[in-house]
Amino acid sequence: MRRLLPFPVFAVSLAALWLLLVGSVKPGSLLLAAGFGLAGGWMLVSLTPPDGRLRRLAGIPRLLGLVLVEVLRSNADVARIILRRGGWQPRRSGFVRVRLQMRSPYGLAALACILTTTPGTVWVEYDSVENTMLLHVLDLIDEEAWVGIIKDRWEARLMEIFE
Fold first, then answer.
1. Rounded Cα–Cα distance for residues 75 and 116 (Å)
2. The whole model's pTM is what?
3. Alpha carbons 79 and 92: distance in angstroms, whole number
């Protein structure tokens, strides 16, 4: 039964939603609603996330505190760059490719969220074959320094939690 209807509540909800949208309970509408419910449940199986678990919960509060401090500091830095008095000084923005050791999909997602919510940086792409990420930095002064920040400050802590 689980194979036919992997997510029964979702399937019934989707069918009911369809019937509400159509505004009819004619046999054709019921058949179509049942088809949408079954198909939606089967499609949802492909979106089921992989199994994962947190290894060290004690590192989470420290990581969250560090992220909060980094976001505030980066906000101030970006504001300083934008509002700098004395005229506009050209900034060198650029891309940095970082080879990662972390393989946990949850750790990689957390790293992407951290880097993207930090002003001045954006996670651009991830190459799963080479296990590298591409990061865009607003004020790129030293590429090696950014690689060190990613690996030492973020990846090491996330690996501690997720791997």
1. 12
2. 0.70
3. 16
